[in-house]
Every structure is written in C-alpha cells, then in structure tokens.
Design a protein that fits this description.
This protein is 27% helix and 24% strand. By secondary structure, it is α+β, with helices and mostly antiparallel strands.
C-alpha cells in the first residue's frame, strides 16, 4: 500500500465525509471518487490511528466464497447440486448465505429445503453467513445453531437471520455469535 501526505484541510474534509468509527480515509476517498468496491470495517476492527485497514476485499461473492472455502476447508469441497452455494467434502457440508453491502444489519434467510439437507446430513455441517463487501463471514457449526434453536424454542422449518453486525448478535435468537466471526 502506498502512503501519502495530506494537508489539514483535506484531512478535515475526509473526517466530515467519514462514517464515525467505521471509515478509514482510504474508504472515504474510494466512496467519494466511486472507485471499485468499497466498504467499511466492523467497529471492533477499526484502528484508532485512522490508517487504512485494507478490509475492503474488492471481491465479488463467488470469489469471496472461494476464499473462505480455501482457507477454512482445505480438503477442497465441491459444489453440491442443485444449490449454488452449498459445498461438500468427504467430511463437511457447508452452506453459504451472502449479503454483499456495507450495513450494520446483515439479513439472511435459509429456506426449508437447504436447511433440511443440512439437518439430515451425517457430515459436519456449517452455515457460513458472509458479507464480501466487508471481508467478513460468520462460520457457524450447524450443531451449535440447533442447540440454540431448541433453547430459543424456534418452531419454524427455515431460518430467519438478522445480525446486528456492530455487536455480532443474531437478533431472532438473541445470540452473541462474535466467536464465529472471521475476517478475510
């Protein structure tokens, strides 16, 4: 990454156009100049020095899913038909839901059919809730989700998932899922 010096007036302009506690100067410049895909970093990862954090992936959803698979599932899972974002290896079944924009609330829905495929599998299953725009994913083992569904008395045959991304809380289940958050 190239470092530049800016005068006080430019710095104050960037501050005025920044989302407090979220944007780096680089993110503000990218947004104002409409350069590529830009995003913000979760508040927990923002550097207080306002130096660029490099969390904007610039990747589309397919690239991001491939990155997650290669880093977290080195056994090389393959796409499981007919699902575009379900992948299977000899030992794992991973289902991705993707929300690709800068937002404090992430929304996902896992319909009845893919949810049943996961629940019926004898493999280690994961639900991966991604936000490529921010370079993050919540990689949650299905067995942990099922435990929480039981204690929360969830009765639907699908999952509704609204995550308060600032606090990493799955709102419907009142569940802190910060431990499952990964940055790429």
């Amino acid at each position: 990454m190239t470092k530049i010096d800016i005068d006080q007036e430019v710095f104050e302009f960037l501050q005025k156009n920044a989302k407090p506690f979220v944007d780096t100067p680089n993110m503000v410049i990218r947004r104002l100049l409409h350069i590529g895909k830009f995003s913000s970093t979760p508040k927990s990862e923002v550097k207080s020095t306002m130096e660029p954090t490099g969390t904007s992936t610039g990747m589309d959803t397919n690239e991001f899913v491939s990155t997650v698979l290669s880093k977290d599932f080195p056994e090389g899972p393959q796409r499981k038909s007919p699902y575009r974002f379900m992948f299977e290896s000899a030992s794992s079944l991973i289902y991705f839901q993707n929300f690709n924009k800068d937002s404090a609330t992430l929304w996902y829905r896992i319909n009845q059919k893919p949810f049943k495929v996961l629940k019926d599998s004898r493999k280690k299953c994961f639900i991966c809730l991604t936000n490529p725009a921010e370079g993050v994913a919540y990689l949650i083992p299905l067995e942990e989700i099922e435990k929480k569904l039981i204690t929360s008395k969830w009765s639907r045959d699908y999952l509704e998932i609204n995550i308060d991304h600032v606090s990493s809380k799955w709102k419907e289940l009142d569940w802190d899922i910060k431990q499952y958050l990964k940055t790429y």
